[in-house]
C-alpha cells in the first residue's frame, strides 16, 4: 500500500513538473511531508527525509530532461563545467546545513522560498535578457554555483528557480538558460542526495526502509512514475494557456509556502 502511495506521488509530481515547466521538488517535498506525518514517522526527521528523498528523485528526472535538451544542442556545456564544482560542493554543504537545522526551521525556510517562487511566477517576472551582458569569470561562476548548490540542497530542488535567473542576468537567452539549468540539476541532485544520505547516517535515522535521510521506497516509486508522466504533462501544457498555468501553480505554491510557514511558527508559540 505504501509503495502505491509513492507511485501516485510520482505521477502527480512528474505531471505537474511537465505541466508547469518547473522541477518536481517543490511539489514532492510538501506531499512527502504530509505522507510521512500520516505514517507517524519521527517528527524530528520528517522534513529532512522529504528534502533528501526529493533530491534523490531529481537525479532520475534530470537525466531525462538534460538528454532531451542536449539533443537540441541547447546546453552550454562550457558554462556547466564552470558551475559544476561549486554546485557539487555547495549541494553537499547545503545538506550539512539542513542537517543542523530543526524540522521547524527547515519548514520556515522552504515555506518562504515557495512563496517567493510563487510571487515571481504570478508576476511573470523573468529578468529581461540584456545581450550586452556577459558571464562573469570562471571563478565567479564557481562561486555562483556554490550558492545555488547550497540553496538547492536545503530546498530539495534541482536549482532551476535559481540557475535560470542567474544565467538570464548574464545575457544567456531563455532556451539555453533552461537547458543548461537542467544539466546543472544533475550534480546538485547527486551531491545533495549523497549529503543527505551521509548526514542522515550520522544521525542514525530509525525510520524503516531508509538510507540516511532518503526513503528508498519513496525514491523508487516517485522516480519511476515521474519519469513517465512528465512527458504527458508537457504535452498538456501546450494545449492550455501558459499564463493561466503559471497563475494556478503560483496559487498552489503560495498555499504550500504559507502552510509550511504556519507549521514552522506554530512550533514556537
TrEMBL record:
Stated name of the protein: Probable membrane transporter protein
UniProt GO cellular component terms: plasma membrane
Membrane topology: Multi-pass membrane protein
Recorded family membership: Belongs to the 4-toluene sulfonate uptake permease (TSUP) (TC 2.A.102) family.
Subcellular location: Cell membrane; Membrane
Transmembrane segments: 6-33, 45-67, 79-98, 105-122, 142-167, 179-199, 211-232, 244-262
Domain of life: Bacteria
Species the sequence originates in: Acinetobacter indicus CIP 110367
